[in-house]
Design a protein that fits this description.
Blueprint (H helix, E strand, L loop, with lengths): L7 E10 L2 E2 H11 L5 E2 L12 E2 L21 H17 L3 H4 L4 E6 L5 H14 L6 H4 L6 H10 L4 E6 L5 H15 L4 E8 L3 H10 L22 E9 H6 L6 E10 L9 H15 L8 E3 L6 H15 L5 E3 L2 H4 L6 H15 L1 E2 L22 E2 L4 E7 L4 E8 L6
Parallel strand pairs: 5-6, 5-7, 10-11, 10-14
Antiparallel strand pairs: 1-2, 1-8, 1-9, 3-4, 7-8, 9-15, 12-13, 14-15
């Protein structure tokens, strides 16, 4: 088989989310329809009428960050590094072996280290620029979300990139890793996304009127918007030959992906563009619409997104689309981590043969016209799953995952 045709599989998953840390907790949370919604504690919410979010709560970073000083990393970098080490451990990879192989680290983000930036701006306004902590200032570069992974794991023969395509960034990172492994340019890729909740983004969405007061209700007639969330998802991608040679567990196969940017509007999605990126992903994956068993929708819970995305789904899939769920109903909107965490949810759904629910659901908006699997997970024999990621400025990315089968 030519190197450009190498099959690419997922063999390790690292998860930090408001409904569970690690694969076992995360899959249990998805099955149970657990909600991560709770009062925001990561920043001062005085002055906001409501301030519910999906934060991580207490998390022991020192369990996963062992070589870098934890204080040298901003919160988003701590998340990405922890999830990366978790994914490598889950994949059963020997770091000494990995260090001798060419690799890729691609991490997507929306905000980078904006929580640290919030702190610095607050200090400057209160006490002047001289009072700003230089150690915090040194943590600001978004590139550290990926480079810190390389430093922590001792990986020197790697390309480390941070991809800032907002809410679609996780899928972008997975697509980048898929191409690199499939072409033979690298032996492995650590791909995903990370973001920490920050006041800047919460206040921005609040000002737009798109923050829900209590919970996120995607596709529901009474939906009122998003809940901001945080976390990280990192996936280990390697060639099928590599995985089989070392007897690795295979969660799923990456079949393909699609990207586009319509530049239609800063925050409003464009129906034709969303339909187009789904068509591109299916074409790249060599999958027909009728073969898709489930769509992990972007499903933010805003009025505009849910109707637009639902209509785009029906444009591609016709009057009998596959079920389309939103894990944001549980996790909140984790920004640059969103489509990475959703991709992990897709891989686990394929592995464990179930469909996670869309929780907080009472009645589907007639304009949406999809089966969003309300409130309770269902058992399902899934073969192919599509994962949607729609970002600010019309940056859209869709990944297609499949159950690993010996021949295709």
């Amino acid at each position: 088989m030519a190197s450009s045709d190498r099959r690419v599989v997922l063999t390790g998953l690292g998860v930090l989310s408001s409904i569970g840390t690690g694969v076992d907790e995360f899959v249990a949370g998805l099955r149970a329809g657990r909600s991560g919604a709770k009062p925001i504690t990561g920043f001062d919410t005085v002055g906001f009428e409501h301030s519910t979010g999906c934060g991580l709560g207490e998390f022991d970073t020192e369990e996963w960050i062992r070589d870098l000083p934890v204080g040298s990393l901003g919160p988003a970098s701590r998340f990405s590094v922890s999830a990366a080490r978790m994914a490598v451990q889950d994949a059963g990879l020997d770091l000494d072996v990995l260090r001798g192989q060419p690799g890729l680290i691609s991490i997507g983000t929306t905000d980078g280290e904006s929580r640290d930036l919030d702190e610095l701006v607050e200090t400057e306004l209160a006490d002047g620029s001289a009072a700003m902590d230089p150690r915090v200032a040194a943590r600001l570069r978004a590139g550290r979300l990926s480079s810190a992974v390389a430093l922590e794991l001792g990986l020197s023969d790697v390309e480390a990139v941070t991809i800032p395509t907002a809410c679609a960034a996780g899928n972008y990172a997975i697509g980048y890793g898929y191409d690199a492994v499939r072409s033979g340019d690298v032996d492995f890729a650590l791909c995903g996304g990370a973001d920490a909740m920050c006041r800047k983004t919460f206040a921005g969405f609040y000002r737009l009127g798109t923050i829900a007061p209590d919970c996120c209700r995607p596709f529901d007639i009474e939906r009122k918007g998003i809940l901001t969330g945080e976390g990280a998802g990192v996936l280990v991608l390697e060639s099928l030959d590599s995985a089989l040679a070392r007897g690795a567990r295979i969660y799923a196969e990456v079949l393909g992906y699609g990207l586009n940017c319509d530049a239609y509007h800063q925050v409003a999605p464009d129906r034709s563009s969303v339909a187009r990126v789904m068509a591109l992903a299916l074409e790249n994956a060599k999958v027909k619409p009728h073969e898709v068993d489930l769509i992990s929708a972007h499903g933010t819970g805003t009025k505009a997104n849910d109707v637009t995305e639902s209509q785009a789904i029906r444009e591609i899939y016709g009057d009998r689309p596959p079920r389309a769920v939103s894990v944001k109903s549980m996790l909140g909107h984790t920004m640059g981590a969103a489509s990475a965490l959703a991709a992990i949810a897709c891989a686990l759904a394929i592995t464990h043969r179930f469909i996670p629910p869309t929780i907080n659901h009472n009645r589907t908006d007639p304009e949406c016209r999809i089966d969003c699997v309300p409130n309770h997970a269902v058992e399902a024999d899934l073969r192919i799953v599509q994962n949607n990621g729609l970002g600010f400025g019309g940056n859209n990315a869709v990944a297609v995952l499949g159950r690993y089968e010996e021949s295709v």
